[in-house]
Amino acid sequence: MRLRRHMRMPVFNRDEGTERPSGRRRDEADASKLGLCGLRNIGNTCFMNSVIQCLSHTQELTRFLRSHHGSRSSSTKDQQILHEFAKLIQEMWTSNVHTVTPMELKRAFSTKHRMYSDYNQQDAQEFLRFFLDSLHSALNSGVKGETLNIDDNLSDNKKADLTWEWYTRHENSLVRDLFVGQLKSTLKCTTCGNTSVTFDPFWDLSVPLPSSSRCKLEACLDLFIREEVLDGDEMPTCAKCKTRRKCTKSFTIQRFPKYLVIHLKRFSETRWSKLSNIVEFPTMDRELNMGSYGANSNSNVHYSLYAISNHMGSTAGGHYVALCKHPVSRKWHEFNDNIVSDALSENFLVSSSAYILFYERA
């Protein structure tokens, strides 16, 4: 279900006559228009269109896809998805192409993920996870079978490195290189004080929202890493006590990804309700510093925002759009299915509609 926008955005009028720049300036002007391509809605597919636009503005991924040439008769469903996505990106970044229909990509994706074969509205973050997993699987050259064995006496950082090396031997693709980071989970027994750590890959951070109607992104990240008490039915078995004990559990980020995806958990688990909090997130270059959330202190890890997937409306009916920063002009544009807005002010970026934030490491 699509909602009417109360605020009308200026859109490109490509028929207006303007004085043509020459030489290098003309090349730069042409490059600043590439990728400003809308995607037709083919039946409640705004969730897909929004995510595709955000991925299209992920520079290293698009650079790879624009030169990727696979076979239509690719052997796996994932490779067919990759093939159609690469074709779509190549068309979207072609001169004088203003609108594209992503029908073949949706058909290839629905062949593997049957829940997307109809034309019902879907969740953009769930789609993003499935979609990146398919791209990764299509490119994965990793070797399976090796068992992970780590000496418990090693330092945490050494354990993390060995776990990451093992993971990357199994899961080896450009998509993993770009989007995957590593979480450190610390479990501490409240009886004997024994501490155990585990390290797991993550493709995005799903952060809870505080109860206040307006907050900063840092408050959401603080909730994500906040120490949690595991008691009652949730009590784990302490390796030292050899019995179930009340424990505390906390997260920190051991390894930061090149592209950090932050999912604001606006929807309840049952999707019966949606939070409309305004989360104030950093929008300027290098403004987001994730260093304080790292497992190793005294580090500065700066990120720059480059894309947002917005959800407007409620659980009963809503609409997705994307806000993306062009890699050449450095201007923000709104991608509302087939309509691409003119340059946006950065004041337009923070709203109660922000759902998925895409950051690039500076």
From TrEMBL:
USP domain mapped to chain residues: 37-362
Compositionally biased region (Basic and acidic residues): 13-29
GO biological process terms on file: protein deubiquitination
Gene3D superfamilies: Cysteine proteinases
Reaction(s) catalysed (UniProt annotation): Thiol-dependent hydrolysis of ester, thioester, amide, peptide and isopeptide bonds formed by the C-terminal Gly of ubiquitin (a 76-residue protein attached to proteins as an intracellular targeting signal)
Region of interest (Disordered), ranges: 1-29
Key words of the record: Hydrolase
PANTHER family from the UniProt entry: UBIQUITIN CARBOXYL-TERMINAL HYDROLASE, UBIQUITIN CARBOXYL-TERMINAL HYDROLASE USP2
Protein name: ubiquitinyl hydrolase 1
Phylogenetic lineage: Eukaryota, Metazoa, Ecdysozoa, Arthropoda, Hexapoda
Gene: Dana\GF21001
